[in-house]
Every structure is written in C-alpha cells, then in structure tokens.
Amino acid sequence: MRLPLLALLARGPAHGYELKQDLEQLLGSAYPQPNVGQIYVTLGRLEKSGLIAGEDVEQSGRPNKKVYHLTDAGREVLHVWFEETEGEPRVRDEFFMKLALAPRTGLADQIDLINKQRRRYLNTMRDLSRLAAAEDRDNRVAQLLIEGAMLHLQADLDWLERCQEELEGPE
C-alpha cells in the first residue's frame, strides 16, 4: 500500500479518502479494495518517515481534514521503485512444497492434491470471468489486471497438468 499511495500523491496533494477512491477507481473491483483505516495508518507511517508531509485543512461545520503531499524524499523513493524490475519467478510455492512432501509423509496423495488445486484454480478463473464481464469496459487498467490474473491462472493450470503427467508416468 505504501508505494501506490506515494505514486498517487506524485500528481498532487490529497487526503486519505480521496486516495482510497482513486485506488478503487483505477484498479476496479478485481483488486482487493483498500481499507480506509489501512490507508490512514500507512499515511501516518509515510509521514513519520519523511516521505510525505501532511497539513490540516479547516472545513466549516466539519472536523479538519489532513491533506498530504509528496516530499522530495518520497519522490526519490518512487523513482527508485519505478526503476526496479520485479522479483524472480516464484520458486517458493506453498502448493509445490505440499506436492513434493506428500509422498514422504503418507498423509496426502499427489494426484488428489493436484485435482483439488485444479478445482480451486478453475473456480477462481470462473470468478474472474464474471468480474471481467461486470467491470467497466473503459477501465483498461482493471481489465488488464483481470486478464493478467487469468493468464497466470492458465499457466498454473498448464503446470498442474504437466505435474500430473510426470507423476502418473507413462501409461
């Protein structure tokens, strides 16, 4: 949450609720919706670390609101973030660890594990398809997020198929 909030503040000052709305509008319903409490806690931490600065703005008939803006240090952190490439392919996978250890424990069957995981991925794929159909077609970022998740799921399904073929051996 830290870096996305900094990125939103790069375009100009905003208060926490505006940032929440911006994230929701940008990412659509496919991305887990941020909790406003989490946003304000994160803003407080960013302010303490000197990456943003906040100033109270008076409102008539309402409590003051705090408007935040990006500091030079925050802008530098964003530059570094945008320059970095993302991490290595996932190798530490919880499911794969279960699959690898199942025969040594005698507590689970590898093919049963694969079938359960496949059902889970297919259900998730179905949910994402519904989400894609319901999402605003003009929100390209949300559509791309859903498409990316579906492509990752398809790759995971293909990999499960490969695992099953390998573990069942030649017939």
Concise structural overview:
This protein has helices at 2-9, 16-27, 36-48, 72-83, 94-105, 110-134, 140-168; strands at residues 52-59, 62-70. With 171 residues, the protein is mainly alpha-helical. A hairpin with a 2-residue loop joins strand 1 and strand 2.
> What about the largest sheet?
2 strands, antiparallel
Q: Count the strands?
A: 2
Following the backbone from N to C, one meets helices and strands in this order, namely HHHEEHHHH
Question: β content, as a range?
Answer: 5-15%
Shape call: elongated
Going by helix content, strand content and strand pairing, the class is mainly alpha
Secondary structure layout:
Blueprint: H1 2-9, H2 16-27, H3 36-48, E1 52-59, E2 62-70, H4 72-83, H5 94-105, H6 110-134, H7 140-168
Antiparallel strand pairs: 1-2
Top keywords for this entry?
171 residues, mainly alpha, two-stranded antiparallel sheet, 65% helix, 10% strand, elongated
Fold and architecture overview:
- The structure is a single chain.
- The protein has 171 residues and is mainly alpha-helical.
- 65% of the residues lie in helices and 10% in strands.
- Helix 2 crosses helix 3.
- The longest helix has 29 residues.
- The model has no long low-confidence stretch (mean pLDDT 90).
